[in-house]
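Rotation project, supervised by the postdoc (A.L.). Task for the rotation student: set up a whole-complex structure prediction and record inputs and outputs verbatim in this book. Inputs entered:
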Amino acid sequence: MDSVRPLDNFPAIRTFDIEEAREGLGRIYVKPTLALPPPDGGFQAVVNECRLQNVRLVYASFGAPFGLEFPAADYFLQMLPVRGNGEVLAPRGTLPLSAGVGATISPDAGYKVRYGADYEAVILKVDKEALTNKLIAMTGATINEPLRVEPVFDNTRPAAKILQQYLPVLVNTLSSAVAPLPPWWEIQTEQLLMTMFLCAHQHNYSRLMEEDTPDAAPWQIRRVEEYIEAHWQGPITLEALAEVAGMSAFSLFRSFKKKRGYSPLEFAARIRAKNGTIR
Amino acid sequence: MKTTPLLDAYPLVRTGSVEELREALARLISNPRLEPVSRDEGLHAVHNHYPLNCIGVSYGAYSAAIRFQIPEPKVISQIYPIAGKAEVTVEGTTVTVGPDCGAAVSANAAEYNITNAAGYERLIMLVDGDAANAKLAALIGESVQPLTLQPRHDLNEPLARSLRENFMFLVRQLNAGVSLPPLILAELEQTLMVMFLHANRHNYSHLLHRDPLNADARHVRLTEEFIEASWSRPIHLEELATLTGLSIRSLFRSFRKSRGYSPWEFLKQVRLRHARAHLQRPETEMTLSEVASVCGFHNRSRFNAAYVEAFGELPEETSKRGKGPRLH
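Outputs recorded:
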């Protein structure tokens, strides 16, 4: 079923010429240099690119084995091969690429890639500043050391599976979308993608989103419950609850669920049910 | 062909009784009235429900034909038929829902009837009406009257497909027993809400698709709503940038251009307004300094100066009139 390529309605590069392909890639990423030229004949670059505001979804296939070298840049790249093989040569080692085995590149270091002839991949490109802002909003963290993501994408983690299952949904719907997409649709979709990205990857701030962050004290949980009991008639936002508890939304949710067996939003739904309306 | 019920881990009711089904549905939606179309058909009804914050995911399967009447449902229904057919009538418009066509029903619809054929199965995304209005107001940058949806929902339209696929992603995860991390769940709910507003035709559709030249006003309005909701805590620049998807510089430029002041000045005014409201409350036990501090002013003399500039009198004077806080 490869008659229709992902994101074909967003064509970015269609060429047999390696130089032209490099120019085109320079408009999506930072312009690469040629590390390993393709053999004569067979090179056919097909690259599609759907731009949201701070996130881009790219599909790429080149039809011939070759290699590129990319300089350091200001974005995160998650490569999700669809078929074929390749490898990434990053400062910290060589990462294999094959269907289901992806790799993620963090900003601020150059890297090389080598692709096999039948390599095809979907690539998620996320702006560094936007992702860092999202991390701050999610955890309340102060960011001194730049966000750095584990290059090997461990797709056995539950949150990694969620991202892996969501991307085809998104690519599918985008592939039948008519540009231009409504701006708020784009903004909200990329907020969701960035949330999933930060949950799916291991990174140097993962611990803020995991088990060993301090638990909410009983009074914090009670304050959140009281707030929900008083405000059940309106929409209840994560930010408001985090503020009431005086801790990050993430830690609050986790402690609440641990102590009560359900999340604050589920608690809100129960209060609403008790008061006669369920949504 | 019998399909496997969806969301089976979240049962609301399993019953052969129309009355029991009615009682169960009354917990989701206001005033449902149900009657079997034919007394001879045996009913087996299954309804499952998973509530989120402002969205609920509901599955219903009915072995016999039933007529539902739901005047003023108080909650928005986005109906996705899975098997069989039904006729949905909303204020005189009848939509036959099936593989290519769903339906959307406003929270305040005066007339809302469904007659389903035997073997009908459907998923419903229930959306809180107030939450939908609040989201809409935030997106278009002005206050809104209640949302009035066009009942016919063409499932082949690109944005409608997108909404459905995102909704079905959530259904599949729930079905598989995956517990989605809360922050992902909350963000997914926001996404469904935004897509819901774009994928349906309603009385504000034209404003959601209008000229991006108005983007300035929308960003400013969104920022203002955020500040109004979060005035009592420190607000970070990054939050405003994340919220609008703009760089901090362009957000401030938009603000200056359409309002003539910065987001911080707006925040100050909001906090002063809250302080004034508090000072006018006779029952408060707080001191003036405490009121100032709760409203984000940690320096009394600066608070006084800002207050006088905004309201033309000292906080003490407001307080005296309202017999409010003790004068410290």
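Student's summary: Chain A is about 35% helix and 25% strand.
Supervisor addendum: The mean pLDDT of chain A is 86.
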